[in-house]
Amino acid sequence: QITLKESGPTLVKPTQTLTLTCTFSGFSLSTSGVGVGWIRQPPGKALEWLALIYWDDDKRYSPSLKSRLTITKDTSKNQVVLTMTNMDPVDTATYYCAHEAAAGDAFDIWGQGTMVTVSS
Amino acid sequence: SYVLTQPPSVSVAPGKTARITCGGNNIGSKSVHWYQQKPGQAPVLVIYYDSDRPSGIPERFSGSNSGNTATLTISRVEAGDEADYYCQVWDSSSDHPVVFGGGTKLTVL
Hints:
The complex is a heterodimer.
Chain A: E1 3-7, E2 11-12, E3 18-25, E4 35-41, E5 48-54, E6 59-61, E7 69-74, E8 79-84, E9 93-100, E10 107-110, E11 114-118
Parallel strand pairs in A: 2-11
Antiparallel strand pairs in A: 1-3, 3-8, 4-5, 4-9, 5-6, 7-8, 9-10, 9-11
Chain B: E1 9-12, E2 18-23, E3 32-37, E4 44-47, E5 61-66, E6 69-74, E7 83-90, E8 98-100, E9 104-108
Parallel strand pairs in B: 1-9
Antiparallel strand pairs in B: 2-6, 3-4, 3-7, 5-6, 7-8, 7-9
């Protein structure tokens, strides 16, 4: 059974760097094809894809946020970490991580999400 | 980057059929995934690769994709189907490979 869970601060100040951790079980990020993605959702708004990392360390970023995002993996800890620099109130959102069995596949299992508020 | 267009809202009476569209340029050449999201919950995959259903998703949920429109069809709609629905594609030719539609609020009358 695949599960994912996001963790990180609930409140960050403008200009700070956000670090979110996705801890997963039921699969390995060393298995060929597997990926973990980050998706966010501002309150009352649509889903927005942020980043993906694959088993072979291939990384993809949303072009509009690429300069602010870094995604890394720790296969031994079953974790994926997303950092977002220079946080702004418009970055207030629920942040989700999700499992992708292979590039182009659907995000078949999602974490519960973690709400991050950006405010001074 | 690739753009997916969904109607903001669709309303349907219980027992009837709901159709939620997802428009995109030649979307029929891409694979479309659909997610259901109820208030306060994470999205749940309901259709993948245009028309396949994950285990546990009722047969009432089906999908199709042709030309410039993909469609999620929910037959015999129930009150519990009321939710937001999002389509998503993988655009392999783009530097923005994962694209979500703007979402459709399904209201069961």
